[in-house]
Amino acid sequence: MVLADLVDLQAAATPDKAAICQDDVLTYAALSARAAALARGLAGQGVRAGDRVAVLAHNHPDTLALLLACSRLGATLSPFNWRLAAPELLWILQEAAPRILAVDAAHAGLLPAELPGIQVVPMGALPSDPGPAPHNAAAGHDQGLLLVYTSGTTGRPKGAVLTGQAMLANAAMSRHMHAMTADDHVLTVLPLFHVGGLNIQTVPALLTGATVTLHPRFEPAATLHAITAARPTLTVLVPATLHALYAHPAWPGADLSSLRAAPPVPPPSRPPPPPRSRPAASRS
User: Fold this and answer.
1) Is the torsion defined by CA of 216, 219, 222, 223 positive or negative?
2) What pLDDT is stored for residue 128 in this prediction?
3) Within a 13 Å sphere around the CA of 164, how many CA atoms are in the beta-carbon half?
4) Which residues does 183 contact at the CB level (< 8 Å), separation at least 6?
5) Is the pLDDT of residue 266 over 80?
6) DSSP code at position 10
7) Strand 25-27 to 18-21 pairing
8) Using CB atoms within 10 A of its CB, is residue 3 exposed (0-12), middle (13-18) or buried (19+)?
9) Exposed, middle or buried by CB within 10 Å (0-12, 13-18, 19+), for 275?
10) N or C, fewer C-beta in 10 Å, the chain?
11) Sheet containing 52-56: order of strands
């Protein structure tokens, strides 16, 4: 059983339940069908076990559907950091050597139109083929399923591979740590190219049957509005996003009561205490 199988089980149990909410609502039945169609489409383009599929895009439901599709084929998904400069991305492309690169409109001009050996596809035009989901016999939990790259602040970005087994173990630990159930509603604003955005709550939520509201990228006003309007029960924020929320004019009136794990609120800033005077050395 791979990640896509677990989502298929959720689709069989609660087909009409919202799985991913962005501009539209993608039910579990629709997510399961989309992942199957993408798996068939990728296989039709020659993607096989061990191949890599890259994504350069803001958070999009198809990034998650591609992860599920890759789990069926034994392929590896590599979401690229869209904050990197073009030379850094070109180096990662050379190192990762994906067969297909999906790019959204916001990043279409960042890389050359022609990349030798790589099929560049618009995010909205990914190859898909409706029908029964393919399942590569070589696909398994010990296959590399996710390839993520570090920021490269001290050198070139470095790739780290997570297997399907690692993803399942992470989901189990997340469910335990967050006491996550199918009744939860996760708000994801961190980028899916980061394991914080993808693996801490988002993928575990989909494997549990919960609902994920997915923002294309973090915006303080949109995040505060979503917490108030959508009433999520869980979210993941990091110091930079927390400070942006604290600094927003809407923060003092924000209603965080729906969150079971609310972000920490720092104490009011105070000026540093004056340095203590040191007693003068005694003279003999």
Assistant:
1) positive
2) 93
3) 25
4) 210, 233
5) no
6) H
7) antiparallel
8) buried
9) exposed
10) C
11) 119-122, 100-103, 52-56, 76-79, 144-149, 159-163
Q: Tokens representing 70?
A: 């890759």
Answer whether residue 268 shows pLDDT above 60: no
Please give the Cα distance from 52 to 76 (Å, whole number).
5
Q: Which amino acid is at 262?
A: A
Give the 3-state secondary structure of residue 158.
coil
Amino acid at 212: V
Those residues with Cβ within 8 angstroms of residue 25's Cβ, 6 or more apart along the chain or in another chain: 18
Distance CA 36, CA 242 (A): 37
User: What is the rounded distance in angstroms from the CA atom of residue 74 to the CA atom of residue 54?
Assistant: 14
Helix axes 61-73, 3-13, angle to 10 degrees: 120
Per-residue pLDDT at 275 exceeds 60? no
Nearest to 162 by CA among 151, 148, 146, 173: 146
CA separation for the pair 111, 20 (Å, rounded)? 29
Over the Cα atoms of the chain, what is R_g? 22
Q: pLDDT band at residue 150, thresholds of 50, 70 and 90? A: confident
> Residue 278 pLDDT > 60, yes or no?
no
8 Å CB contact between 241 and 224: no
| Averaged pLDDT, 121-127 | 94
Question: In sequence order, what are the residues at sequence separation of 6 or more whose Cβ sits closer than 8 angstroms to the Cβ of residue 92?
Answer: 80, 84, 149, 157, 159
Sign of the CA dihedral with 232 first, then 69, 190, and 195 last: positive
Average pLDDT over residues 102-122: 91
Q: How far is CA 57 from CA 110, 121, 129, 284, in A?
A: 11, 11, 22, 74
Kindly state the DSSP code that residue 229 receives in the 8-state scheme. H
| Across 220-249, average pLDDT | 95
